[in-house]
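In the laboratory, one determines a bound structure by crystallizing the protein with its ligand and collecting diffraction data. In a computational setting the workflow is compressed into a single prediction: the sequence and the ligand go in, and a structural description comes out. We illustrate the idea with adenosine-5'-triphosphate.
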Amino acid sequence: MSLLEVKNLQVAYGGIQAVKGIDFHIDQGELVTLIGANGAGKTTTLKTLIGMVKPSGGSITYDGKLNGTIPSYDYVRHGLVMVPEGRGIFSKLTVEENLQMGAYYRNDKAAIQSEIERVYELFPRLKERYKQLAGTLSGGEQQMVAMGRAMLSKPKLLLLDEPSMGLAPIIVEKIFEIIQMIAKEGVTMLLVEQNAKLALEVSQRGYVMESGRITMGGPARELLDDERVRNAYLGE
Ligand code: ATP
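The predicted complex, in structure-token form:
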């Protein structure tokens, strides 16, 4: 059984259908990318997966549980964790306090501390700045905090919404390296990205979303070679 199974999912904002009946799945251990133009419905899809937005139809089964069975405040404890677009860090807290917030529901203090050390190994920049208020960090550093904080939640399925947004190319590369490292540690991931080329290069599979529908899906390698994808999303 897939870790995540989405069937005929529909989402409407008032009279506007943002998601028009999509089907997709993510298997344990997979890294899957969802690409699509602005307004295609990608963020809405992620928000619906974590219960921030209520679907108007269809079903979401995560880890064998149907949507509605886990209260939305409890998704993190069940391992479904999202790093939102714009990072969603606590700007008035320090780097280290932000990381600790990721573990707010855990009591295994020693393990938490060693995982914070592990995040500092992945992101030495954060170690240097552990006492700095997160709101004063650069965009790339804030993205690192957001990803580090998500790691402290011990995710089973990590949803990343546009992690490369607004970052310099060199930082984008670093963020993608980290995404691959997290994947190697066995975390299943759904990545939404404007940077379709990089995202597909690190993924096993991908889906293309257009105007609320999934119009293509398959191995990332095939999408990278597909002429329609190349023209529309890879700038070729
Ligand atoms: P982007 O890449 O620009 O973030 P996206 O694919 O993530 O785009 P969504 O943010 O999911 O797209 O938006 C899908 C559609 O739903 C858009 O037309 C958007 O204007 C609309 N929409 C999103 N949030 C709301 C809301 N809270 N109320 C009304 N309409 C909304």
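The pocket of adenosine-5'-triphosphate is lined by residues 13, 16, 18, 36, 38-44 (CB under 6 Å). Keep in mind that any predicted model is a hypothesis to be tested, not a measurement.
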